[in-house]
Structures are given as structure tokens and as C-alpha cells.
């Protein structure tokens, strides 16, 4: 193949990207090399346990089509999604990956899972029966995972059911490839439930002699060797969310810049935005930015006379939101910036330059997971380091 058509293609790509960024109200940059580095850091920490990658909910909102291949390139071979539809999308991207579907087997979908070589994580007796029957019917041992509930009381077999299953597993019609459970409080240091879940899981996995076990999510991976078993399942740490502090050096992954579409002067005593929720105490300059709650900037991030809103960086300085966040717009107080330093078309940085996903989350009354998975569909997305 000659270089010329490729060069033309990449020039077209560049032009399309530039147009999208020009036309969008806000730009989300995802650093794929940071995702890959974070996976490698966790894989090194977890070894000899295998390090999987959790890419449910569109890779935590960052775009599975770009993130999953980057993780595969970094060395990840086992992937977890929540929904069957997500698994199908991932299968098209990664023909050779081992793909587990955390939400389990929906009725009458066993043939669809088998056709795409997907492994539903079976978490109830009816699911196991349906998979067993299908395997017998096909005369095929289609291995998949068993989920045991060790104290979260959300999903999985009860411990009693799991113990019984371990005793009769020769009659299953398939060979479990993994027995897993999920920690409820891994990110709360010293929570007593964590140790109890580990002990219960260790007892269950012992009875499934020879079947690999998996208990740890991101935070669980840091709890020590006792929690890692044969496979760890990090999600949030790959994407620059840090569920607890003092962790290995993980890199930030996302940068969110919203465009300033108007700069105005407002007199002291005037109010800003819906509900007149914030009254200005001084003559102010206000930058109106093209981002709102429809883009995942939570309404709870807004400002009022009672509580200051989140910060964004404009012209290198931190500025507070002023007034409520509306659907498509937010307003920043730029009074302390030098006159003329902010123009229409400049950007306000809501994530990046020292503002982490968890900072924005904490100041919006939520968690980094919700910030990431709420990232808006209207952003122009820019992938770097791929
Ligand atoms: C989402 C999820 C994970 C990943 O959790 P993080 O806290 O993002 O690392 C692991 N296991 C299960 C069962 C999950 O649902």
C-alpha cells in the first residue's frame, strides 16, 4: 500500500476533528496512554494475579470503541461489561478477548451469548439452570462465571446456594471458569464488612477446588494479596478516578474544557441565573460558558447565596461558578481576572490542570463514577496518546 491514500485519510480525519471541535460547546479530551499506563501499573501491582479491565457503561463514559483497544494493546485480555449489548459491541472491537457480562443471563439469551463467545456471570439458580440446559442441549461445555453474594445483598447466589453448587458441580453441564464476588465497602478503609466478605469468599472458593477466584475491584486491589485471588477487576482506577487516597501513581485521563460564549458586566445587587439564587456583592464580570446539566455538569455543582459552586480554571486562575447551573449554560465569576484577559471563544477548564474527577464530584455532592458516566453526548471528543 502506498502512503498517499492514508495521508489523505488522516488529513480528512484531522479536518473532521477540527470542525467538530469548532462546532461543539465543550471539548472532552481522553488520554488513552494514561488509561494504558494505569492498567499496567495495576497489573504490576496485582501480579501474579491477572488484571482484567472493567469497561461497562461505555468504559465509564469515556468511549469503549477507543478505550478497549487501548487496554488490549497494553496487555489486558479479560474484560467485564454490565450488559449483553455492551458485550456485543466489545466483541466486535476485540475478537479474541475473554468477555464477562456482569448483569448475568437475561431469559432466552443463552444462544446469543454463545454465538458471540460471551460469558454471562451467572448469579441465581434460574440463570444457572438455563445455562446448564442450554449446554446439555448443545452438547457443549460453555464455561462461564458464577457470582456469589458475600454480603452486599445485591446480586449473586447466596453462600448456601454456592456451597451446594460446589458439591454438585459435576452435574452442571459446564465448567465454571471463574467464581467471583463483589466488595461493598472496599473504598472505606477499615470497614468491618470488607474483612467479613473476604473470609466468606475464601471459604466458598476453597470448595470450588481449582476454579480461579475474583473479589477485588479497584480499591479492593490495593487491600493486599489476600484480596486479589487469581483475578482483579479494576474499573475506576483505569480512568483516573481515585476511590481512596495514597494509591499508586495513577495518571489523570480526562480533560474537560467548555467554551466561553459571552462575557458581561453585572452591577452589585443584581442576581445571576434561574431562581435569582445568587446576589452579587460587588460589581462583577461574568463569563457564560456552554455547558450545563444536560452535559453532565450537575445542578448540585451550582452556586447560591448559601453555598459556593464548583471551580473552573479560566486564563490560568480558578474561578467559582455563580448562580445555578442550567440545562445548557453555566456562569463563572471572573471579576478577579485582569480586564480583557478573557475573550469569547476562550475555554474554562472543569477537569484537568489540577482539578480531578473526584474534586469535581465532591463539590457536586457525588462520586467520580457518576461524573465520568454522566459526561455529555454533546461534547466534541478528542482522543490522544492512542
Ligand atoms: C463496576 C464493577 C467493578 C469495577 O469497580 P471499580 O470500583 O470501578 O474498580 C468490579 N466488579 C464489579 C462486579 C463491578 O460491578
Please estimate the helix content: 25-40%
Structural class category: alpha/beta
| Strand proportion | 15-25%
Morphology: elongated
Instruction: Quote the average pLDDT.
Output: 95
Poorly predicted ranges (pLDDT <50, ≥5 residues)?
none
Distance between the termini: 22 Å
Give a structural overview.
This protein is 32% helix and 20% strand. The protein is of the alpha/beta class. It has helices at residues 3-23, 32-46, 56-60, 64-74, 84-93, 110-115, 125-138, 159-167, 192-207, 218-221, 357-363, 368-373, and strands spanning 26-31, 50-51, 53-54, 78-81, 98-101, 118-120, 145-147, 178-180, 213-214, 231-232, 254-266, 271-272, 278-279, 284-289, 311-314, 317-320, 330-333, 347-351, 380-384. Strands 1, 11, 14, 15, 16, 17, 18 and 19 form an eight-stranded mixed β-sheet that branches. Strands 3-4-5-6 form a four-stranded parallel β-sheet. A three-stranded parallel β-sheet has the order 7-8-9, with no helix packed on it. Strand 7, helix 8 (159-167) and strand 8 form a beta-alpha-beta unit. It binds pyridoxal-5'-phosphate. Pyridoxal-5'-phosphate binds at residues 54, 56, 102, 182, 217-218, 233-236, 243.
Amino acid at each position: 500500500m502506498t502512503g498517499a491514500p492514508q495521508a489523505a485519510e488522516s488529513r480528512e480525519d484531522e479536518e473532521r476533528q477540527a470542525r467538530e471541535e469548532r462546532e461543539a460547546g465543550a471539548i472532552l479530551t481522553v488520554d488513552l496512554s494514561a488509561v494504558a499506563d494505569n492498567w499496567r501499573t495495576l497489573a504490576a501491582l496485582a501480579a501474579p494475579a491477572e488484571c482484567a479491565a472493567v469497561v461497562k457503561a461505555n468504559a465509564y463514559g469515556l468511549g469503549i470503541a477507543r478505550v478497549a483497544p487501548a487496554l488490549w494493546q497494553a496487555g489486558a485480555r479479560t474484560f467485564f461489561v454490565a450488559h449483553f449489548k455492551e458485550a456485543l459491541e466489545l466483541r466486535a472491537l476485540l475478537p479474541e478477548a475473554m468477555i464477562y457480562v456482569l448483569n448475568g443471563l437475561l431469559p432466552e439469551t443463552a444462544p446469543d451469548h454463545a454465538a458471540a463467545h460471551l460469558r454471562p456471570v451467572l448469579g441465581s439458580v434460574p440463570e444457572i439452570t438455563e445455562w446448564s440446559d442450554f449446554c446439555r442441549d448443545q452438547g457443549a461445555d460453555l464455561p462461564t462465571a458464577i457470582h456469589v453474594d458475600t454480603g452486599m445483598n445485591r446480586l449473586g447466589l447466596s453462600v448456601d446456594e454456592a456451597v451446594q453448587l460446589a458439591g454438585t458441580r459435576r452435574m452442571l453441564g459446564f465448567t465454571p471458569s471463574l467464581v467471583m464476588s463483589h466488595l461493598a465497602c472496599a473504598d472505606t478503609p477499615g470497614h468491618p464488612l470488607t474483612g467479613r466478605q473476604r473470609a466468606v469468599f475464601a471459604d466458598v472458593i476453597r470448595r470450588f477446588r481449582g476454579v480461579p477466584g475474583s473479589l477485588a475491584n479497584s480499591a479492593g486491589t490495593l487491600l493486599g494479596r489476600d484480596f486479589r485471588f487469581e483475578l482483579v477487576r479494576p474499573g475506576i482506577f483505569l480512568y483516573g478516578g481515585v476511590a481512596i487516597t495514597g494509591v499508586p501513581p495513577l495518571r489523570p485521563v480526562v480533560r474537560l474544557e467548555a467554551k466561553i460564549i459571552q462575557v458581561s458586566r453585572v452591577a452589585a445587587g443584581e442576581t445571576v441565573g434561574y431562581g435569582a439564587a445568587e446576589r452579587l456583592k460587588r460589581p462583577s464580570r461574568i463569563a457564560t460558558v456552554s455547558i450545563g446539566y444536560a452535559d453532565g455538569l450537575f445542578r448540585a455543582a451550582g452556586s447560591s447565596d448559601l453555598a459556593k459552586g464548583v471551580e473552573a480554571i479560566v486564563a490560568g486562575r480558578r474561578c467559582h461558578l455563580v448562580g445555578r447551573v442550567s440545562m445548557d449554560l453555566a456562569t463563572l465569576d471572573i471579576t478577579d481576572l485582569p480586564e480583557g484577559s478573557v475573550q469569547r471563544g476562550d475555554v474554562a477548564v472543569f477537569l484537568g490542570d489540577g482539578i480531578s474527577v473526584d474534586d469535581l464530584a465532591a463539590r457536586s455532592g457525588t462520586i467520580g463514577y457518576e461524573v465520568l458516566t454522566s459526561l455529555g453526548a454533546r461534547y466534541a471528543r478528542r482522543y490522544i496518546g492512542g
